[in-house]
């Protein structure tokens, strides 16, 4: 386990001559992230996620200097053998009650359920599993990461708006791919699309990068996508980056690709420039000399929620801050063209989903015409009436 | 109007004199209405010049990249337009419509305001978390003030003593003493505050919060929020109500707030702060400007590429003028 205390990168001259600033300490728990990817451009940076939290700490501290509040971040990197429950308890023992967790679902639940985690408030910034907001929801876990079903619905709404209703679905062989495929099937049914054919792309192992791999791929992919009933769009469910990026331009039929390659639903993309996002992108790039990822944004949102609740409650008490975040007064401005709020029934952050081709934002869902009695953002993902979550 | 004159009255000398008099009146009123509005078109990189008598675009000026904040100098001789992607403010001669110089605005200028004497310009620099102070005559920077994250809205008290800047991610209205250039108070408002406007008598400061969906009325003496104006439009989802531009009549009796993608301007009673009416304008309404006689209020409608003209007395939208792409800011000449 590696522990790193990251004070704000800017040192402030505290103009207030009065009392010492109120300290708001935030923990960041993260597990090992895969470093494999098909495209060289997609290799996740080492500080993926935590960099977003750091930027938010800086933003919070700029505000904090006017309110005599100081924010700091402790970055805890777990390896495969570390126990997330012990790491969470250890943070609690050091007086940290606000924890950003970038952990797989099972590890996150271990941390949240640890006896030593009582009084801790977790922010799930990484795991997109619906079950964490459904049957396995927790009363001490807020989710800034969108769910698979939110991502799938965002994509489906656009494809249906585009009248591309006949889908060819290829899913990977990993458990997450199956979950994503489930979410896509549900989205198809919900919004009136039809899956005309399904295939599974088995992950047989092997390197992503080889010297003459491209020659083989060019021959294999057309054959793999041959003999399919007429379809409008090929959708790939490939969360481990095994095959999806190989699909565009290599399908038997000339068809667009969406899902894990081609047109991709995401909470953030480095090309997003609407609604003041340019400022955010430039701030991030200046600080970290790289582009901002979805995980960075999810962590930024969580740390900004903490900043916002500390400013509004004038407090560093996790309970008071949690109370504010659950109240109707809470709204987060996150460069998405509208306020983000919490679904009170499962503590999921409502948010528009960007659709990117990796170069540009093609569209932003929810799409026009998909209406909802309460919030159009609730047309994305599992809605209150179908929720299995009972918060404790 | 001439056509309405009864031709029968032309025959008598007395009536002829009367007609002459009426003619002068017509001419005078035409002149009194003949203001010029300048609209910055964020995407076209142009400024549309509108004759407010005919309500027509009479000229289009090419400017730098991404023009947004726009104002006239107090003497009416120059248009100032912030061209954010060129990191400067361009100065356009109102007589020739030529760009004559630029100002050292600091990076990515968006909104700015002048002191009442028209000698000093205060500019919000979104990328640098600063407000830059510029000597308008010498065109040199005089200093800068560190404010919150993403400074945007700029308002100045009528006596010029207090400058207010809003920061979009910090969610505050920063009160800056213009003499000492120090922040003297910070008032928390709702999310993404975008615009700050004082009443002409200085008794109230209105700050719009785009994401929060409210307008905070701030008491400038106590420096605290005294009232929050909320908006409720039947059949419209709450997220679409995004207040940006604010204009208040000189008598302080009526305020107008542009509600962004709600495509409406709210009319607010300046005394009770109750919403009186919603006026349907073009799509994504950004900013507002009165003609100096306050007969008309002009609105820039970003998505529909037009300007709506509101008749202030009847509170009706009477005209729509096509301008460039994504119209954003607007300023009207005082002469």
A few lines on this structure:
The complex is a heterodimer of chains A (392) and B (335). Chain A has 392 residues and is an alpha/beta fold.
Helix content of chain A: 25-40%
Chain-averaged pLDDT of chain A: 93
Span between termini of chain B: 23 Å
Give the strand order of the largest sheet of chain B, numbering strands 1, 2, ... along the chain.
3-2-1-28
Alpha-carbon distance between the two ends of chain A: 30 Å
Sheet bearing the most strands of chain A, described? 6 strands, mixed
- Strand arrangement in the largest pleated sheet of chain A: 1-3-2-4-5-6
Give the DSSP E fraction of chain A (strand runs of 2 or more residues).
15-25%
| Strand count of chain B | 28
CATH superfamily of the largest domain in chain A: Response regulator
Q: Can you summarize the main beta sheet of chain B?
A: 4 strands, antiparallel
Strand content of chain B: over 45%
Unreliable stretches of chain B (pLDDT < 50, length at least 5) are 1-32
Total number of domains of chain A: 2
Query: Briefly, what CATH class of the largest domain in chain A?
Result: Alpha Beta
The secondary-structure element order of chain A is EEHEHEHEEHEHEHEEEHHHEEEE
What is the number of E strands of chain A? Answer: 15
Structural class by SSE content of chain A: alpha/beta
Mean of residue pLDDT of chain B? 90
Account of the protein in words:
- The complex is a heterodimer of chains A (392) and B (335).
- By secondary structure, chain A is α/β, with parallel strands linked by helices.
- Chain A has nine helices and 15 strands.
- In chain A, strands 1-3-2-4-5-6 form a six-stranded mixed β-sheet, sandwiched between helices. Chain A has a four-stranded parallel β-sheet with strand order 8-7-9-10, with helices on one face. A three-stranded antiparallel β-sheet of chain A has the order 11-14-15, covered by helices on one side.
- In chain A, helix 3 links the parallel strand 4 and strand 5.
- The two termini of chain A are 30 Å apart.
- Chain B has 335 residues and is mainly β.
- In chain B, the strands form seven sheets. A four-stranded antiparallel β-sheet of chain B has the order 3-2-1-28, with no helix packed on it. Chain B has a four-stranded antiparallel β-sheet with strand order 4-5-6-7, with no helix packed on it.
- In chain B, a hairpin with a 4-residue loop joins strand 1 and strand 2.
- At the A-B interface, helix 1, helix 7 and helix 8 of A face strand 15 of B.
């Amino acid at each position: 386990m590696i522990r790193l205390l990251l004070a704000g990168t800017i040192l402030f001259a505290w103009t207030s001559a009065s009392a010492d600033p109120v300290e708001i300490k935030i923990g960041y728990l993260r597990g090992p992230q895969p470093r494999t990817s098909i495209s060289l451009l997609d290799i996740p940076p080492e500080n993926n996620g935590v960099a977003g939290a750091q930027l938010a700490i800086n933003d919070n501290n700029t505000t904090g200097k006017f309110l005599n509040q100081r924010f700091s971040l402790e970055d805890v990197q777990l390896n495969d053998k570390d126990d997330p429950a012990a790491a969470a308890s250890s943070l609690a023992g050091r007086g940290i009650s606000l924890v950003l967790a970038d952990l797989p679902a099972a590890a996150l639940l271990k941390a949240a359920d640890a006896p030593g985690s009582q009084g801790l408030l977790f922010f799930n910034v990484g795991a997109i599993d619906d079950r964490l907001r459904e049957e396995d929801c927790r009363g001490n876990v807020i989710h800034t990461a969108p769910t698979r079903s939110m991502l799938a619905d965002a994509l489906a709404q656009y494809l249906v708006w585009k009248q591309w209703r006949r889908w060819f679905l290829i899913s990977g062989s990993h458990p997450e791919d199956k979950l994503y495929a489930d979410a896509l099937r549900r989205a198809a049914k919900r919004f009136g699309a039809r899956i005309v054919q399904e295939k599974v792309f088995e992950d047989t192992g092997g390197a992503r990068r080889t010297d003459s791999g491209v020659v083989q791929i060019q021959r294999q992919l057309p054959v793999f996508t041959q003999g399919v009933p007429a379809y409008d769009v090929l959708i790939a469910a490939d969360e481990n980056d095994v095959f999806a990026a190989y699909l565009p331009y290599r399908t038997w039929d000339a068809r667009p690709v969406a899902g894990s390659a081609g047109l991709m639903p995401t909470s953030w993309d480095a090309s997003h420039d609407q609604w003041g996002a340019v400022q955010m992108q430039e701030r991030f790039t200046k600080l970290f000399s790289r582009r901002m990822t979805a995980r960075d944004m999810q962590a930024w949102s969580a740390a900004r929620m903490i900043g916002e609740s500390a400013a509004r409650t004038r407090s560093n008490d996790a309970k008071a801050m949690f109370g504010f975040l659950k109240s109707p007064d809470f709204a987060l401005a996150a460069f998405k063209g509208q306020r983000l709020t919490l679904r009170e029934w499962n503590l999921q952050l409502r948010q528009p989903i960007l659709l990117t081709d990796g170069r540009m934002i093609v569209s932003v869902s929810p799409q026009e015409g998909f209406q909802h009695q309460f919030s159009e953002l609730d047309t994305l993902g599992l809605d209150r009436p179908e929720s299995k979550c009972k918060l404790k | 109007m001439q056509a309405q004159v009864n031709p029968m009255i032309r025959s008598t000398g007395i009536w002829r004199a009367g007609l002459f008099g009426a003619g002068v009146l017509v001419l005078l009123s035409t002149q009194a209405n003949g203001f010029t509005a300048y609209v910055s078109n964020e995407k076209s990189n142009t400024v549309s010049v509108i004759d407010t008598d005919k309500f027509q675009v009479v000229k289009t000026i090419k400017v730098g990249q991404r023009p947004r904040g726009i104002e006239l100098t107090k003497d009416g001789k120059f248009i100032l337009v912030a061209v954010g992607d060129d990191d400067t403010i361009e100065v356009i001669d109102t007589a020739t419509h030529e760009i004559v110089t630029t100002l050292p605005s600091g990076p990515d200028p968006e909104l700015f305001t002048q002191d009442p004497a028209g000698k000093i310009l205060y500019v919000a620099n979104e990328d640098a978390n600063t407000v830059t102070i510029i000597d308008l005559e010498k065109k040199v920077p005089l200093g800068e003030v560190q404010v919150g994250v993403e400074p945007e809205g700029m308002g100045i008290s009528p006596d010029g003593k207090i400058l207010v800047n809003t920061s979009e991610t910090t969610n505050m209205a920063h009160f800056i003493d213009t003499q000492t250039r120090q922040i003297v108070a910070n008032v928390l408002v709702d999310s993404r505050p975008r615009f700050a406007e004082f009443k002409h008598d200085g008794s109230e400061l209105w700050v719009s919060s785009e994401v929060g969906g409210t307008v905070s009325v701030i008491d400038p003496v106590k420096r605290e929020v005294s009232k929050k104006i909320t908006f409720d439009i039947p059949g419209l989802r709450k997220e679409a109500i995004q207040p940006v531009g604010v204009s208040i009549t000189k008598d302080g009796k009526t305020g107008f707030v542009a509600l962004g993608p709600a495509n409406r301007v709210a009319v607010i009673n300046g005394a009770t702060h109750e919403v009186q009416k919603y006026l349907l304008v073009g799509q994504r309404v950004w900013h507002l400007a009165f003609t100096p006689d306050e007969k008309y209020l002009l609105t820039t409608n970003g998505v529909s590429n037009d300007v709506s003209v509101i008749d202030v007395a009847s509170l009706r939208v009477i005209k729509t003028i096509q301008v460039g792409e994504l119209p954003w800011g607007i300023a009207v000449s005082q002469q």
